[in-house]
């Protein structure tokens, strides 16, 4: 059976999209930011976008030809009929002739044709539409291959519960219903036909004790009062029959049917029963086709949370983890480069460059002054510029001090004039200067200091 095949994932789709000449051309165009209309694509194809290496149309994944037949089989596995299959496809997958293909496959299938022909309302008793889930349920028995199947349909959501029972006695029926009530609560109204188990005093007493307020049975000669359950019975039986269910695998096929039934939009409500009953679209293997962008994004967020919410920019004053001489400590420095989210190049205040993980870097508001203590043989003539800037001992002001040192300029071979006008955005040439041997501390000093300088004017 198709359902045993390994499900197709969005990765498969992405791979196959690349291999397909037509689709990969569209993908490439999108990757290059080309407007599809501008290069001749029309109709829905022109509306394609891409996600995770797959083409998408709205929320639907565009399926390469190779997988179309298999997915048609997947859609068809529960024989839910043309309309439901189209509805299900509409939330998941797309290719240009998908509607026609679904029609073709369903038109060759008697159970699907029957489902399609079934007018939803004509013979049914007019029930007031309940305002909440599980307020009114319809129950009925089906027998299939000698097995008894109790079917319970929620009138509001069309959610269906199905149980194979060993017998159809009132006691057996009550046991099953009690289990369902334990999951979903006690309905206000239970509707059934006049079968012996439902008319029995045991059943009525059970409902009364549970707290069901009304038990409605179909009028004699008017079986359609319980039409909702009956339709469920017919739909299920046809699906099981055409799926080739046997007594041994009956439960398996019931499960397969229910999964798809609950996921597909219902003709009456226009929504999948799972949406009305559970408040969400249930996942099935068909969802593997969708690029899981949301998860990818949230995983990314989690990664970030595990330590990377922090980040630094070149020029930021930091303390970095030093391992000099086998001793771990925090030393002052300046971020020189950002190599990805996690890795930085930090220039120590003595002018050396170190590569550090973000976990080994913390923000520091140290005045640059402290820096010079490290290895600053050069005298420190203070330029007036600093005092103008800010009286506070901010990193900038201290850097300004450094910047103005005469020794530095000479080393960097940069004319003083340009120096003073330099914005902090001009640090690239500092890197090479780091490398030089410690023999020229003055020069390193100047370089380092220069980068973060900001001259507000
Ligand atoms: Zn079918």
UniProtKB/TrEMBL annotation:
UniProt biased composition (Polar residues): 384-424
Domain Integrase catalytic: 126-281
Biased composition (Low complexity): 431-444
Transmembrane segment boundaries: none
InterPro entries for the chain: Integrase_cat-core, Integrase_H2C2, Retrovirus_Pol_polyprotein, RNaseH-like_sf, RNaseH_sf
Annotated Pfam families: Integrase_H2C2, rve
UniProt-annotated stretches for the region Disordered: 375-457
UniProt-listed Enzyme Commission number(s): 2.7.7.49
Domain of life: Eukaryota
PANTHER family reported in the protein's UniProt record: PROTEIN CBG26694, RIBONUCLEASE H
Protein name stated in the entry: RNA-directed DNA polymerase
Native source organism of the sequence: Nesidiocoris tenuis
